[in-house]
Amino acid sequence: METLEFRYDTQLLIEGHDLDEDAINDYITEHFKGDCLLAVGDEELVKIHFHTNEPWQILEFRASGGCTRICRGICRFAAQIRCGKRFNQRFPKRVSGLWNIQSAQFGTRKSSFVIAWRSYIIKGSFVMEWSRLLSDERIRPVPGRAGSGDLRTEYEKDYHRIIGSASFRRLQDKTQVFPLDKSDFIRTRLTHSLEVSSFGKSLGQNISQKILQEVRDPAFLPEYQGYICDILQCAGLLHDIGNPPFGHFGETVIRDWFRGHMGSLQLQQQPLTELLTRQMQEDFYAFEGNTQALRLVAKLHYLVDEHGMNLTQALLGTIIKYPVSSLEIGKDSGDIRTKKMGYYYAEKELFEQIQSTLGTGGRRHPLAFVLEAADDIAYRTADVEDAFKKGCITYRQLVGELQEWGQKQCAGEAYTKLVNALEERYQKGRERGVSDPETYAVQNWIVRVQGKLLACATEQFAVNYEAIMEGSYRRELLAGGDCAGMAQALGDIAYRYAFISEPIYKLEIAAETILGFLLNRFVDAAIVYDSGQSMTAVQAKLMALVSDNYKAIYRHYSHEKSPEEKLYLRLLLVTDFIIIY
Question: From CA 154, how far away is CA 138, in angstroms rounded?
Fold first, then answer.
């Protein structure tokens, strides 16, 4: 690709009176470095198009007396003052959510004009825009309540909707890795989600400051930092809300069950494999907790109606880690966005609406990378800590494993320093006379590692900012940078010492038995439910156990659908039901 000298395409619309496009053209040429300058319009409206490397200077300049060439009054440019109602009303077709609206004044006469601007990186043909990515629109619009006194942002309202939901509270009864433990030390899905939420908010603060101070994307406004922190805080609470009992192994059991049984299931003597489309079948073969999360919060959680929690679309876009259907999965593609599916066929219209509103065009929402990093930091460090506290790995084994991994992988200086820090904390614990220096060392070291991983993820987002905003970045944030080796080592150690331990084997045997039994019985009942066929007494009782709210959602979305699509939705009704157990 050709290297561009000037990388930001900056566009401005200036509304006022007695404007002079030639004078504006001359002023920009004289004071700012760039090319492809165009200034066209009339005395009331001028549009400017300019390629530059520092577009913020155009927006922040304070003109001297020479500015009288631009207008007949004495002009002083006051950037960063939000305005724009009149501008949007007068030029609705010229100004959209892509534009940032600001005001400026003529000095002595105090008469005002309005400026709208946007700037984006010139590289490729697609760049996502923060003004759309942070949309606070909901699937079902909520009318404003004048005089209510509620000063919360829409993202803050999302947070309270999630915290107050039964779907979120159910996470307290689901395990993270180990079976439910009587001690307070081992994490559940609830405590893990709270940790991810906290890390997500911290990353949002760090990354926003990086963009403002170092990347200096002129389209990233200072107030976006607060929005991003709130969105990521909410997304952290939701990221595991669709996971079935027994975690990722529960997902595997559900996928394997459908692969093994779909060919033998029938409705009115017709195999389900002949009744359902390929995508409908693949949705079950590729069952995924992240996909279920979108379905749960957008439909199943019956707050007011069939729109579920009716969360902001920016939040929904953030929790869609894999913006592809079950037919587009490419685990070996090298692109993280195609690793798993992100939406069911049942949510195809919802997914397309979110993509359209946010302007992501099938790419990952930039904040999905941040959410993923927050999750990675939380579980990689917590799994090792929990394994240590459960006695699955000793302090000496942990040190030895870290050292051996670093030697084999030639992990580098940053990795070695982190490993040495673990032993330093052990020595400090002994010097202080703590009763258990090994536990002291591991707990304190984990906190340090978390801080390093947060810094690494922040740096990687900034370094790869252009690719992320173009949708061409293909890896996890923690796959690069100085801390990539430690992230990989912790994941490897946790797998070998926790996930293939005896307690987990017992849990997985129980998972296969319990989930297999539930699927056998409930799928058999769901196939004939609402099909016109008579049900047995047992089948009727089984369907009576399914949430009335879930069945109401089924009736709403199956209305006037084909018999085949109704069958597909009834099978989803079973997985919807199993998730809450």
Answer: 9
Nearest to 243 by CA among 281, 210, 289, 275: 289
pLDDT value for 224: 96
- What's the chain's Rg over C-alpha atoms? 28
Q: Give one DSSP letter per residue of 403-444, joined into a string.
A: HHHHHHHT--HHHHHHHHHHHHHHHHHHHTT-S-HHHHHHHH
CB count, 10 Å around CB of 45?
Answer: 20
Residues in CB range of 269: below 8 A, 6 or more apart: none
The rounded distance, in Å, linking the Cα atoms of 316 and 298 is 8
Measure the CA–CA gap between 533 and 389, rounded to whole angstroms: 54
- Return d(Cα 124, Cα 37) in angstroms, integer: 20
Share in percent of the chain as helix, strand, coil (round to 5): 55, 10, 35
pTM equals 0.80
* DSSP character string of 431-498: HTT-S-HHHHHHHHHHHHHHHHHHHHHHHHHHHTHHHHHHT---S-GGGSSTTHHHHHHHHHHHIIII
Instruction: Round to the nearest angstrom and report the end-to-end CA distance of the chain.
Output: 53
Percentage of the chain surpassing pLDDT 70?
A: 83
In tens, the pLDDT along 195-242 reads 999 999 999 999 999 999 999 888 899 999 999 999 999 999 999 999
User: 253 with 237: CB under 8 angstroms?
Assistant: no
Q: Taking 70 as the threshold, does the pLDDT of residue 540 lie above it? A: yes
Q: What is the pLDDT of residue 428?
A: 96
Residue type at position 440 = Y
Record the tokens describing residue 313, joined without a space: 């679309």
Distance from the Cα of residue 325 to its chain's centroid: 17
Range with the largest mean pLDDT of 71-80, 108-117, 391-400: 391-400
Closest CA to 341 of 307, 298, 295: 295
Q: Which two tokens stand for residue 471?
A: 């949708």
**CA distance linking residue 243 with residue 481, whole number of Å:** 30
Sheet-wide strand order for 34-41: 34-41, 45-52, 8-15, 112-121, 100-106, 75-76
Contact 155, 234 (CB under 8 A): yes
Q: Residue 168 in contact with residue 242, Cβ under 8 Å?
A: no
Report whether pLDDT(342) > 70. Answer: yes
Q: What are phi and psi of 269, to 5 degrees?
A: 65, 20
Among candidates 114, 119, 86, 90, which has minimal Cα distance to 101? 114
Instruction: For the beta carbon of residue 58, count every other beta carbon within 10 angstroms.
Output: 22
How far is 411 from 492, CA to CA, in rounded Å?
14
In whole angstroms, what separates CA 313 from the centre of its chain? 11
522 neighbors 542 (Cβ within 8 angstroms): yes
Q: What is d(CA 134, CA 131) in angstroms, rounded to the nearest whole number?
A: 6
H/E stretch holding 49: strand 45-52
CA gap 218, 54 in Å, rounded: 8
Look up residue 396 and give its two tokens: 């000496």
Parallel, antiparallel, or unpaired for β 270-271 and 266-267? antiparallel
CA distance 46 to 116: 11
